[in-house]
Specification:
- By secondary structure, this protein is α/β, with parallel strands linked by helices.
- The protein folds into 2 domains: 227 residues, 3-Layer(aba) Sandwich (Aspartate Aminotransferase, domain 2); 141 residues, Alpha-Beta Complex (Aspartate Aminotransferase, domain 1), CATH 3.90.1150.10.
- Helices cover 38% and strands 14% of the residues.
- The strands form 3 sheets. The chain has a 7-stranded mixed β-sheet, with helices on both faces. It has a 3-stranded antiparallel β-sheet with strand order 7-6-11, with no helix packed on it.
- Helix 2 runs parallel beside helix 8, helix 3 crosses helix 7 and helix 9 packs parallel to helix 13.
- The longest helix is centred in the middle third of the chain and has 19 residues.
- It is globular.
- Bound molecules: pyridoxal-5'-phosphate.
- The site of pyridoxal-5'-phosphate has 14 residues, from helix 3 and helix 4.
């Protein structure tokens, strides 16, 4: 075993929190004896999220999957929704599970985010909404999506499960005037153990979300619609508030780790680090590389890197292979609608992207070690100078 890597180093290990603060909040829950049903911590969390993001309305939920479903129901979606194929399959399942027909589109090979021209081609007369995803915490082209949705006369919502704390042209995600959801799952930048939130600026939509995430009750406890139980309980809200207290530090630490990866990997042949594009800033909670494979100077494969790291007890993830359109519920239900040739970028990324350990549970020296291993694996596969084609 190599120094500093006694314990397995993994992707998504939660950062330690200030347990004293959390314990104070837990004591307050038991003193108040108010455990759920939009308790004081849930309401404080909603308020804090509105302040941080600039969104007008926020509802915290038991997870992001139900947040997506409540938002879809409140928006009155029907028929088809278009979802990028290269995402966590929970995005697609959330809509499929409530009876919507999921159609896929391709993403950009540069950052894995939705490709607007593929999206435009996927829209049909049955499409009620398009769904952006801020992949790996890097915002997608939110304002481009707004334009496209207006042009095509369809609704737009964003799955920002991975992206709390990221910004689009200076505006925090969730505060760009688009209805979005975020996740506070244990592996996310802000954890509620399990949790999520729905953010919107639209007052009518807000009223519907208010009712639908709580059995259809309005503020006067009249049942005004159908609904589910998507509420967040007080222990989760206390946890998320405790993480939010440190959000500034977490974002700064994430940037520090990302910069180490960036400076160490920039000259490694065949390796490209995924970065936010065009005035957008990611929350850097994920560090993903693309192993370009067969370039003129390198022919390293993703499996070479993955295996070299695993031999040293460091475990990477091949998010989001193989692409949702290849997963069973979708490839069997709608095979005619999803010829894989239409999603070349999804398929290329599914074969070449690798997410590396980062976050508060990974030290700087471990990141240096990861980079050493990647560098050494890549250099083993470096082509000799004689085999590099001479370009006139
Ligand atoms: C893009 C995306 N959408 C949806 C989800 C589901 O979130 P949750 O686990 O909070 O339900 C996740 C979770 O990782 C995700 O990454």
């Amino acid at each position: 075993m190599i120094d500093g890597v006694g314990e397995p180093v993994v992707v998504g290990k939660p950062r330690q929190i200030n347990r004293t603060k959390l314990n104070h909040r837990l004591d307050a829950i038991f003193e108040r004896n108010w455990f759920s049903n939009r308790g004081p911590f849930a309401q404080e969390l909603e308020q804090r999220i509105c302040e941080i993001t600039g969104a007008k309305y926020c509802y915290v939920t038991c997870n992001a999957t139900t947040a997506l479903q409540v938002l879809a129901k409140a928006m009155g979606l029907s028929g088809e929704v278009i979802v990028p194929s290269f995402t966590f399959h929970g995005t697609a399942h959330a809509f499929d599970w409530i009876g919507l027909e999921v159609r896929f589109c391709d993403v950009s090979r540069v950052d894995g985010n939705i490709d607007l021209s593929s999206l435009r081609d996927s829209i049909t007369e049955k499409t009620s909404a398009i769904v952006g995803v801020h992949l790996w915490g890097n915002p997608c082209d939110t304002f481009g999506l707004v334009e496209l949705a207006n042009e095509a006369d369809v609704l737009l919502l964003i799955d920002g499960a991975q992206s709390f704390g990221a910004t689009v042209e200076g505006s925090p995600v969730g505060g760009c005037g688009v209805s979005e959801i975020v996740s506070f799952h244990a592996t996310k930048i802000v954890s509620a153990f399990e949790g999520g939130a729905i953010l919107t600026d639209n007052p009518e939509l807000s009223e519907k979300i208010h009712a639908m995430h709580n059995f259809g009750f309005d503020t006067d406890k009249n049942v005004v619609s159908s609904g589910t139980n998507a509420k967040m309980h007080e222990v989760s809200a206390a946890m998320a508030l405790t993480y939010l207290d440190d959000l500034g530090d977490i974002l700064t630490e994430n940037r520090g780790r990302f910069e180490i990866y960036k400076s160490r990997l920039k000259s490694v042949p065949g390796i490209r680090l995924i970065e936010a594009q065009h005035g957008r800033r990611g929350n850097l909670h994920y560090v993903s590389i693309v192993v370009e494979g067969n370039t003129p100077i390198a022919h390293v494969r993703r499996s070479d890197i993955k295996e070299a790291l695993a031999r040293q007890n460091i475990f990477t993830r091949t998010y989001f292979a193989p692409g949702c359109h290849k997963l069973r519920p979708y490839n069997q239900l709608h095979p005619d609608k999803i010829p894989s040739a239409r999603f070349p970028n999804t398929e290329a990324l599914a074969e070449s992207a690798l997410s590396l350990p980062t976050g508060g549970a990974v030290s700087d020296s471990q990141i240096h070690l990861i980079c050493d291993i990647i560098e050494s694996a890549a250099s083993k596969h470096r082509r000799s100078s004689r085999s590099i084609p001479i370009v006139p």
